[in-house]
Amino acid sequence: MRDTPLSNCDRLFLLKAIEEKKRLDGRQTYDYRNIKITFGTDYGCCIVELGKTRVLCQVSCELVPPKDSRPTEGIMFFNLELSPMASPAFEPNRQSELLVLLNRQLERCLRNSKCIDTESLCVVSGEKVWQIRVDIHVLNHDGNLMDAASIAAISALSHFRRPDVAIQGRDVTVGSYLLVDPCEREERVKDGLLVIAMNKHQEICSIQSSGGIMLLKDQVLRCSKIASIKVSEITELINKALENDKKIRKEGGKFGFAESMPKERITTLKRDKAPVEMTDVKETANDIVNRTETTTEVASVPSPVLVATGTAQVGEGIVNSWGLDEDEEDEPLTEDRKTDEVMIISDSEEEEVVILNEEAHFTTLLLRMRVYPDARRLTGTSSAFPTVERARP
Amino acid sequence: MAGLELLSDQGYRLDGRKAPELRKLQARMSVFAQADGSAYLEQGNTKALAVVYGPHETRGSRSKSLHDRAVINCQYSMATFSTAERKRRPHGDRKSSEMSLHLKQTFEAAVLTELYPRSQIDIYVKILQADGGNYSACVNAATLALVDAGIPMRDYVCACTAGFVEDTALADLCHAEESGGGTSLALALLPRSGNIALLQMDARLHQDHLNALMEAAMTACKGLSKVLDGVVRQHLEEVSVLTSE
User: What span is annotated as the signal peptide, if there is one (chain B) (predicted)?
Assistant: First the structure.
């Protein structure tokens, strides 16, 4: 299934909001969404939540012969999968551009930057080395997969064996406006993406710009500064999560996904607590009420036009001829007669009649909206309500 | 750094260049008669061939065409004999498809695609010999091919790599310098406006050095653009002489 395209109004709205430095979920331009890291019962398994984006990461290893060119180095293998359960736009078993991009970016920032010491994975030089396989599954896609994936990968790797320290953080530019951690809808209006991977020592592990944007040098430098701040925050978070997990394990407490997700909801259908700005609420509300009072006097509602029963038209424009045939034009007249009768019945206290009374009231409201030019027809047609006749005491 | 001294005490690199010096760049345009535009480019020992077809009607599924601009289709491949070890798959592996994607993004930023709605421009690039800076050689060759095909662009797109060794930024890395495990930054620049069309960096580098490294790469790109401009002008002279006779 192809992704439903973003409508023009939505796009304009988003861009306008970004221009005014506002974002859909109330964040500031440089804010991250909430990051939550949950470790599984096995070592090297974790779920990372970044707002509504969710990824599951599992690290596994096996002994393999090394590559001929590098006999003393272990092998790292990264595999990210975009399954259709994360988003209807992902097709199964297909190497999409996004997938290639994400996989290569992961490889580059975790393998090529040498944040993992591959030589320590050597068992017997030239014969046996560890192959570490990092499988990342996207459970729910709400933008910024790259960040979620890299946080998941590094957390799972640190959890799996002795901790290696190197953490990633990223920025994204939307047009000439800079946004950090875009959600899915923001990603759709973006002009381009700048991904910066850094470790906590302020060393850049990789940079990648994409999406056909024109960057200026100053923008890149500014992005790298923001990235370094975000990176230290995320590093701290991961370390805290790791420590927490270690402590619980040592104390023999309960751990694993089952414990950390008591609601048994793996993907969506849950809503995080959102902080609401409560200062000056009363004043603002009063202010709004005061302002609206003045406008009510000015507004003059144009009287609706009833074309046929069940249809009414308010305002200007082309006259609605929907469902209007020559014969049908006569029908409102019978209705009018009906209401007359109902009005008479309305004194009675039988239940049936009461219901009819409501109906009648409704029709009268409609009928009052138009003055019928031909008064003769009001009495002309027959077909009174038989039920009404019977209900009469 | 694998015991190799990338920068000697006298300030010379492995192949005898100084830090900011580029490798020799040679290029020819219109090397194929069949294609709409083509170019052959040598940057040191790295050799690249680029061919451009289009703009033409969108091939394949009609749904790919865009109503407001042209689609750019890139394919990057490396000849099986281009590297020291024989390559099994010339294209289609992860690295090649990533490179194709990057080339596509670079030229989407540079070509005036909005002039050709509902059409497609094909850029095929092949590396004949890989000796470092494959991406930049491809971009430079493709730029010349696009110029040869007469497709309007905002500016020349020039790409160059830069590395960082012992607090010095090295321009235009060769294979030995690239594979040494040091920092390597690839940058595609539109020289006149100073806009960066693509930026990519590998390996670790302290944040404070980023400015110096980018500066070096941008200077190198500006140098390259002069050479490319010379190539285009010379080619035009040759062609105009031929047609006037």
Answer: none
